[in-house]
Amino acid sequence: MNLEDVRELKSAILAGSPARSAGVSASRAAFAPPTASSRVSQTALRDISLGIGRRGRQHLLAIRMHADTSVVRAGVESITANARGEVDVRFVGTVHKQAPWHRGRNRPLQMGGSIGHPKVTAGTLGCFAAFLDGEAPSPLILSNNHVLANENSAEAGDITLQPGRVDGGKVAHDRVGALTRFVRLKKTGNLVDAAVSAIDPGLWYYPNWMKGTQVLSGVRKNPAREGEVVRKVGRTTGVTVGRIRAVELDPAVTYDLGRLRFVNQIEIEPIGNQPFSLGGDSGSLIVDEKGRALGLLFAGNDTDTTYANPISTVLESLQIRLVF
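The chain above was modelled as a monomer; its predicted structure follows.
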C-alpha cells in the first residue's frame, strides 16, 4: 500500500465506517474498505493499536495487540482482511510509562538506585559491603559521605532512605538502613568521599546485579590505567560508558562545605554524546570491562568530566570489603 492508503484505512477502521467515496481512483484501491460485516468491535479496538509500518518500499498497517483474547484475535483477523494482508502484527501486551527504575522504590535493594540521608536530595546506592573485622551490623550500603552523611553533618544512626527525598522517599515508609561509618571531609588531603549504612534487618538485596549492564565480579587489584573503558549504573543517568582520562589527579571540588581538595583520584570522560554522570549519580560504583569494582563516583562537571575515588582506597579507609 502507499502511505495515504494506510492512513485512510486506519481512519476507516477506527471510525467503523468506509472512508472512501465511490469515485476513488484505481491507484488507491489496494485495500477493501470496512463493510458492516467486517467492522471491528469497539471492545476489540480497546486492546488494539494501529499505526504505519514499512516493508521495503511498501507501507503496511501496523497492528499492536495489548491482549490475546478471542475478541482481539477476531478484530485483528478482520483488520488483516480489510488490509488485504498488508499488515505488521505484533503482541506487545500491557505498556507502562517508562519511569526510570533507579529513581523509584527498589525492593530488593539494588545497585544504582536512588538513596540518601533525609536532608539530602538523592544520590546513588553504589554497592554492598561488610566490615573487615566482622563487626555488627552487616551487611552495609556503600555510597558517598555527602549522600549518606550529609557532608559530615549527620550522626551514626541517622536514617538512610531509598528512594532519596527528591524521588519521593519518606522517613515513615522508605527507611532502609542507618548511617554507620563515614570518612570526614576536610579542606585538603581528601582521599575519599565515602560512607556506609547498615541495612535494616529483613530487607533483601541483590549483591552483584548491576541492572542494565553486567554482574559485579570482584574487586580490581591493580590500579586504574589511562584509556580504560569503564561503566556505571547511577540514579540520574542510568547505565553509561566512559573512558579513564587521567589517574592520580588532585582535583578541587566544590561542596556546601566549600572548595575541598582531593588527592590521587580517577578522572573519567564520556564515550558518546551523553555525560558519563550528572548530579544524583554520586555514589555509583564504577567497574571495568570485566565487571570488577574500580572506583566510587563522587563528583563531576555535568558535561565531560567525572571524578572517582579508587575503590582500594575506599575499602581501606572504611575498613570494609565488598559483598558480591
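Residues 300 and 306 are 4 Å apart (CA to CA).
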